[in-house]
Amino acid sequence: MLREEQPFGTPVLRVIAIDLNPRQTIEYSLVTTPGEQARFRIDKSTGDITTAHIFDRDEPIREKEIYITVRATDNGRPRLDDVCTFKVMILDINDNPPVFDKVRYEESVTKDMKANLRVATISATDMDDGDNSIIKYEIVQQNPDSSYFKINENNGLLTLTKPVDRSPGQYYSIRVRAYNVDPQGEAVQDAEVDVKVRVVESNKLPPYFTRVQAAALVLNETFTNYTESLAEFEAESNIPEKPEVIFELIQGRAEQTNSKNTFLLEQINNTASIKLGKTLDYETVTEYTLTVSVKNSYNNVVETVLKIKVLDENDIIPVFTEVTSGTIPENEPPGTPVMQVRAYDLDGTPANNIVSYRIEDENQQLFHIDSRTGSITSRVEFDREATDSYHLKIIAEDNSPSALYSNGKPNSCSQLFTIKISDKNDHKPRFVKGLLATEDVSEDSDINMTLIEVKALDQDTASLITYSIIEGNVGDAFKIDEHTGRISINNWLDYETIREYKLIVQADDGIFQDSTTVYIKIKNVNDNPPRFTGIRNVTIQEETIPSGCIMTVQAYDPDIENRTDPQLIRFFYVVEYDDVIEIDDGGCLRLKRVLDRDPPLGFNRWQFIITATDEDGAGKTTPSTVIISLEDINDNAPRLSNAMPVVWGENRPPGLIVRLTAEDVDEAQNGPPFHFSIDPNAPYEIKERFQVQNDELYALVEFDREEQKEYRVPIRISDSGEEPMSDVSILQLVIGDDNDNEMRPGESRIFVYNYKGESPNTEVGRVYVDDPDDWDLPDKTFMWDDATRHQSVDFFDLNRDTGMITMLQGTRGGDYELNFHVIEQSSHFPRHNVTAKVTVTVKEIPEEAVDKSGSIRFHNVTAEEFVSRTPGQLTTPKDRLQRDNDNGTFLDVRFSVHGSPYYAPERLNGMMGYRLRQLEEDVGFSVLMVGIDECIEEGRNCELSCKNTLYKSNVPIAIYTNTSSFVGVNAFVQAECVCEAPSPSLTCLNGGFLVNDRCSCPEGFEGPHCEMLGIGFYGSGYALYPPISPCNMTRISVELSPQQEDGLVMYIGPLNYNPRLPVQDFLALELVKGLPVLLLDYGSGTIRIEHRHRFPQGKPFTVEIVLQPQAIEMIVDNCKLSTCTSHQSDAPKGPNRFLNVNAPLQLGGAAVNLDYLGSLFNWTYVPQNNGFSGCLRNLTINERTYDLTAPIVAKYSSRTAAMTFGNYYILLIVLILMSTLLFLITLHFHKKYQKQKKVKNTYHTFNNWKQIRHMYTKLDNSKPSQTR
Questions:
Q1: 8 exposed, middle or buried (CB, 10 Å; 0-12, 13-18, 19+)?
Q2: What CA–CA distances, in Å, run from 868 to 523, 961, 962, 965?
Q3: Are strands 581-583 and 762-766 parallel, antiparallel or unpaired?
Q4: Looking at residues 544-548, what average pLDDT do you find?
Q5: What integer pLDDT is reported at residue 1121 of this predicted model?
Q6: Least CB-packed of 175, 274, 294, 725 within 10 Å?
Q7: Kind and range of the H or E run holding 656
């Protein structure tokens, strides 16, 4: 049973089928007729049935009972099934409110009507069933008229409770409520209707019926006579002069009250007849309640009720469910169940809807059917080999004469069913082979690898054989496909654990079984790495090399069963320890050099990774860690640990300066207490001025800072070890300034570059006065000169306390003379003031000048030295800006030159690099590189491709000295890890112009951007062009038309030998006896690739060079044949993978002596010095076409311009730099670290910026170098 109106998924019941055959899986499904709406769902595994439809038991749907047929099917072969049909009763719930017979009621009472007399009957119906359809009535007490009436709660009879007190024509209005109640008496469903009672005169009587149908009419549902009068009514008007009346058949609001006009009323004179208007259906409505009213000329109305009952008739034919076949195994005894058929009849009463079954053909002697249940059983034993199927014609008929046919027989239907005779499992499966074996299964075989397949046969065609391993499968090492019998690996095998498996495999057809034995032999492989034994830590004395083995390492191979057999193990160590330890094949570990225990490069415990590899070093490897602990010896002298510098004020009387402290990296027994003394080898002036007593340093004289600002006092310190160690430490003593000198007037100059005229408020320098004292800033006050103040305050601001001058934003280019007064007061002299003059030169510099600036990186020079060449002092801005280090400092200088327009930076860098030595002589500084290149050291900034990008800011940087200051543009180069690509914007060169997104070029300029594509050489010339950037793949292509068989075509490499920048990479393409030859060096040895295919003399050909980290390729004329392709399978050996060159590309020859460079760099192969003779065209590098019309420098070429670079031009550039015509400064501060095995320079930023951090826009310690 199922309650109506339940949501989808409501559980109905669970069906369970039982299969006597073992290990069968039953699957459940619903049997439906074609096109039938899915009302239920069934879980195919559990048999749980749930709703897939919301049922409504009430009109008009009337879903009161539903038949469900379930099929249960096993998974045998063949698949057998059974069906079961059951009825689901839909239970009513109170989900419908009462429905009144009328939309509204209009009744009447006479003026003299007495109390307790009937007024009307209020009637409602409910589509619910049983107790849910019981209706109660009440008057809603909402106005005074309600007190005049009462209603019977059970039948709706409305009566008058007190005399009528209103005049004829007036009304009483009340509201009546009809409702259901639940078992607890609470109202759950209700409806309300308006009732209007009109007062009529006492003499205006209502009509009355003279003939009614008192008894209920009974009609068969098959009654179809639409002309026959079913009931007649007659009435008198009670108005003699107006005898006519009007009958009406009230149309209710439900089907039971004639809402669909199932019945009609016809009136002739004062007689009304009720006739059938539509067909009847007992299964839809079993009873009708008709209300007939009659009205006279006074509009007074009376009513009467006619009941019509519908009788059920046998007018529905039974219908079979969609089950058309059954199965019975052969050789089963008579009486064996075959299947169950099911038909249902939708007639409304048991007298017409009970279905019975019978067999109607010659097979009834073979099968029997239960007439009541439809269960079919066998009468005989069947032989499948004789007949494998039978067809039964089943008749389903109901239990009363048909109302559809006048033959006195019940309604019936027939269905043809097929009964299949299935093969019976009565034979045992048999394995084809009783014993199987497989050998040499490697213990490292992959999981799921198939090893062998077993096969069993069964004479029964319907038997489904399944395979399983029932014994011997230790650790579930194997698995078997239950359908195919394929045995495969399930878990990792191990020869050292189990060497042979004996598997018992069973074949099962569901009833009978057979078994066979499978032997699987495992083959040993080297799958276990060696295992170390007895690894222990050792302790030795530091700084000593013990004789013999410091320890003997032992290991064994688990794959070798007998430990006494040779284990064939070789020992190795990590290559990083190559200069520290060595180990032989016997495991003897020796030291190759002494180990240091003490900082900064030593450790008290040294850890080494030793590896053991079996199969004589060709097999598997196991690492282990060996720890060597060091015993301390007294091998380090103590060092001063005082904070430096120590400050001692000038003019102070002799006395204690500082208590000396020291530290010793040796252990405590070789450390304190320490003994301090002035170094006996100290200069005389030190001994005369300083003295050490115990651990205290004393001044013996008064000091004058103006005489000497700093002393370096050598202190000899000895420790307390058995053999004491001593050394000299330098104590840096600064004489503190005392303002004991009067200042004098001073003049200074400040030069400012205002980048694009957009510099913000910028501190450009301090007011300078001539004063030997340099710590006296707090004693000074700076003020504008009143006479010139008004001319300057719009452009400059002055800090009264520090004297710092700030250039205000918006200051334009020009010369500005600023005048100041400086007031000083000290205990050594009276208050006084002097004048100071500062000349500020402001120049606006365009962005083009920065973008097209060349660059030079100087070595061991400071910005102040570059600007002023005056020695710095401890408290000057120079000393606050940078800190010296052992490796020196670097200064980056950017410069630009223009003769309208600005020269390209590649051109400037090329000319400078060409005459580098002369530049160093003229400027007086060492040059690290020309053309600042952050990609030059491979791997420092980028692992693969690398290109240099110039960054710039309108926030300037400043360099201050006493009498001059310089404020420049903050521009620096930073490496980006991408390959340099052609610009996406289309720029036309050499006078070309854009037409429809293409360059229209002058005659002779044929490149895509109007480049000159060709250049000629005569054997002794060269032309320099912009350098290339390192890329993960570099592709170079050039077309050659040679006139001679030998000559250097292209050289990309250093122009000179610079020991401070050990980069020796180069690429050279040359002709040797008419054949192209490629030389390539990445810094670790030169390789030579020779092309072997000869082309006809004088015929142009193209050479393409492809550089990749793993391989180098040279292709001539796009020829891929083995005879014309030269391919080096490996790139140059060594740690570097790219061509890193900070120099121009040279065509047609070299501007330097390559033999000399080759000897300095130790190149394995040196390019020839002979120049190329002929024409070169279409030079492209990484899709960039080179413009050959304007080389940086050229000699003896067919396009030679006034570009030869002489001394005059170098001197001109130097003068431009030194006179600060137009240059940009960027500071780089680096530290260089050199590893023992890999010589690489690494740059670090010095971060002593605390006092001047306002000068910089950003300091990023993560950058390898910070350029200023």
A1: exposed
A2: 83, 7, 9, 8
A3: unpaired
A4: 90
A5: 56
A6: 175
A7: strand 655-659
Cα radius of gyration rounded to whole Å, the chain:
58
Under DSSP, the state recorded for 1107 is: E
In one-letter notation, the amino acid at residue 855 is S
Q: Residue 969 is encoded by which pair of tokens?
A: 């543009």
User: The domain 746-870+889-939+954-969 is classified under which CATH number: 3.40.50.2300, 2.60.40.60, 3.30.750.24, 1.20.1530.20?
Assistant: 2.60.40.60
Confidence of residue 175 (pLDDT cuts 50, 70, 90): very high
In this structure, the dihedral spanned by the alpha carbons of residues 603, 604, 607 and 608, taken in order and rounded to 10 degrees, is 80
Residue position matching structure tokens 């590309």: 1145
- Cα–chain-centroid distance for residue 1071? 53
Q: Whole-number mean pLDDT of the chain?
A: 83
DSSP character at residue 146: G
Annotate 1249-1264 with three-state secondary structure: CHHHHHHCCCCCCCCC
Tell me which DSSP letter residue 23 carries.
Answer: T
Q: Which of 16-25, 314-323, 1066-1075, 1245-1254 has the lowest mean pLDDT?
A: 1245-1254
Q: Which of 1046, 1027, 1048, 1044 is nearest to 1036 (CA)?
A: 1027
pLDDT, tens only, 1118-1143: 665 555 555 555 667 666 777 888 88
CATH number for the domain whose boundaries are 203-311: 2.60.40.60
pLDDT of residue 61: 66
State the SS3 of 261-291. Answer: CCEEEEEECCEEEEEECCCCCCCCCCEEEEE
Q: What angle do CA 349, 352, 358 make, to 5 degrees?
A: 135
Sign of CA dihedral 991, 995, 999, 1001: negative
Tokens of 547: 């004789």
Fold classification of 313-424 (topology level): Immunoglobulin-like (2.60.40)
Residue 1266 confidence (pLDDT): 30
User: Which of 85-123 are b and which e, b meaning 16 or more Cβ less than 10 Å from the residue's Cβ?
Assistant: beebebebbbbbbbbbbbeebebbbbbebeeeeebbbbb
> pLDDT category, 709, cuts 50, 70, 90?
very high
**Per-residue pLDDT tens digits for 75-134:** 876 677 787 878 888 888 888 898 888 888 888 888 888 888 888 888 888 888 888 888
- Written as one letter, the residue type at 694 is N
Distance CA 1083, CA 1238 (A): 12
Q: Is the pLDDT of residue 181 over 90?
A: no
pTM > 0.70: yes or no? no
Fold of the 430-523 domain: Immunoglobulin-like (2.60.40)
Indicate if the alpha-carbon torsion angle 800, 801, 804, 807 is positive or negative.
negative
Residue with token string 């590893």: 1235
